[in-house]
Amino acid sequence: MEAKTLFDKIWDGHVVRSIKEGPDVLYIDRHYIHEVTSPQAFNGLRQRGIKVFRPEKTIATADHNIPTKDQHLTIKDELSRNQVERLSHNCREHGIEYFGLNNSKNGIVHIIGPELGYTLPGMTIVCGDSHTSTHGAFGTIAFGIGTSEVEMVLATQCIMQPKPRKMRISVNGKLEKGVTSKDIILYIISRISAAGGTGYFVEFAGSAIQSLSMEARMTICNMSIEMGARGGLIAPDETTFEYLKKLSVVHGVKDFNKALEGWKKMKSDEGAVFDMELVYDAADIKPMITYGTNPGMGMAIDAAIPLSDTAGKEASASYMKSLAYMGFKPDMKLIGHPVDYVFIGSCTNGRIEDFRAFAELIRGKKKADSVTALIVPGSKLVEEQMKQEGLVKIYEDAGFEVRQPGCSSCLAMNEDKIPAGKYAVSTSNRNFEGRQGPGARTLLASPLTAAAAAVTGRITDPRTLLS
User: Fold this and answer.
1) In the predicted model, is pLDDT for residue 178 greater than 90?
2) Which partner for 351 in 106, 215, 240, 431 could form a disulfide, CB atoms 3.0-4.6 Å apart?
3) First-to-final CA distance of the chain
4) Are 31 and 57 within 8 A, CB to CB?
5) Per-residue pLDDT, 1
6) What percent of the chain has pLDDT over 90?
7) CATH number of domain containing 236
8) Both 402 and 296 in a single domain?
9) 443, HSE (Cβ side, Cα atoms, 13 Å)
């Protein structure tokens, strides 16, 4: 029998029909929706006079546009309020499970899916959001889709997709203290560029990846889209199974042990062929920070900004334009550069482990007076956990305010915007021009690096502050 990759096994097992010289019709096991990309899709169903085909396969939450303060009050912004109200109405009309504002299960869509037991190994998962790749940490094929495709899945529980090529990225060895999964993925993207994974679905492997917690794996897969890949996945193993065992409910699984038998077989066969293989040494990875306006423009925190992007004259002009936007120059070091804002949260780093790491570094210290900090848990469950574990007290003792869950300052679709010209060390996933607000300057980094900046007021190597 031909050796197959894990990606091939899941994809081929979900193909309803293959169109000759065209895309595959792929069955979707789980569909996540939120308030931004679903209203038009539901209107499309209404105009066609049809209902959601399998509403039990769809889970909804409000996250992108919601405020992170005073969530018990009416949303001030009219567009945001209307989108959230439409989502609530559409879910009631079609019998879809909805976790709205103030619901104890509300949160960022890519955080609540796993923590509530909806994301399981071997699934196909889609959402009208590019960072759906997060769920690949469980050994799923998960990817973002457009609004017309959201309508397609609501109507048929299927989607038409061309099959991507396969890439395996292995990271072997042991990580240095102070180096996190966020640093791993920023390092990889800096090596292959923000377009290096275009056309591929990536399997992350190797001993360094296998040593990571589920939360850290979600960070890796979350940002696979930032290298241009269609998505990323990690084969399920004992770490995955232990995570799932601890959940209060695993949806759609009647016999956990029987399901476990199947999940244990979910891995790439020995000898399976990938279209591209890349291998990195964990020892080469340091705490990372971005200096430009795409996630591929990253470097070790103690390095100097490269003299050029090495991609030719046209790209070089673009490179210099990016640095000009950031107020930086080639060969400049960022250590010691003043910081105005720090944001910890988002679907990349808004999980309990991220807030534990941040709290450990700031414990006994004080927030720098010059820094405005946005501390935003990724879900109500994370928020509650932070309280129970005493993390909120650590934050408050250090002068930080912990906000309510939401996408917050990851993107400028709510009130948590970074002002023009200000520098923000952010644990989110994108540093595009204006991503956090018109004219905002974003430096992507790990929760540890963000914490170091928050207490020093400057870009600081977190290793210098770790006990």
Assistant:
1) yes
2) 215
3) 52
4) yes
5) 79
6) 97
7) 3.30.499.10
8) yes
9) 32
Q: What is the DSSP track for 266-321? A: -SPPTT---SEEEEEEGGG---EEE-SSSTTSEEETTSB--S--SS-HHHHHHHHH
CA within 13 Å, CB half, 138: 26
Do residues 233 and 328 share a domain? no
DSSP states of 97-109 as a string? EEE-TT-TT-B-H
* Structural tokens at position 177: 């203290």
User: Tokens 């989108």 correspond to what residue?
Assistant: 83
Structure tokens, 227: 């290298």
> Residue 448 sits in which domain range?
288-464
**129 lies in a domain?**
yes
Give, in degrees to the nearest 5, the angle at Cα 130 between 273 and 193: 60
Which pLDDT score, from 0 to 100, does residue 300 have? Answer: 98
Residues 6+ apart with CB under 8 A from 354: 215, 344, 427, 447
Note whether 156 and 57 are within 8 A (CB).
no
Domain end residue (candidates: 250, 277, 304): 277
Task: State the residue for tokens 């020995």.
Answer: 270
In 24-116, alpha helices (H): 39-48, 78-94, 109-115
Q: Which of 62, 16, 81 is nearest to 404 (CA)?
A: 62
436 & 311 share domain: yes
Asked if 101 and 249 sit in the same domain, the reply is yes
For 334-396, list the strands marked E by DSSP: 341-344, 372-375
Q: Is the pTM of this model over 0.90?
A: yes
Helix (H, G, I), strand (E, B) or coil at 333: strand
pLDDT digits (tens, 9 = 90+) for 268-309: 999 999 999 999 999 999 999 999 999 999 999 999 999 987
Return the number of other C-beta atoms located less than 10 Å from residue 308's C-beta.
12
Quick: pLDDT tens for 12-27. Answer: 999 999 999 999 999 9
- Strands 441-444 and 276-281, sheet pairing: unpaired
pLDDT number for residue 310: 62
| pLDDT value of residue 316 | 85
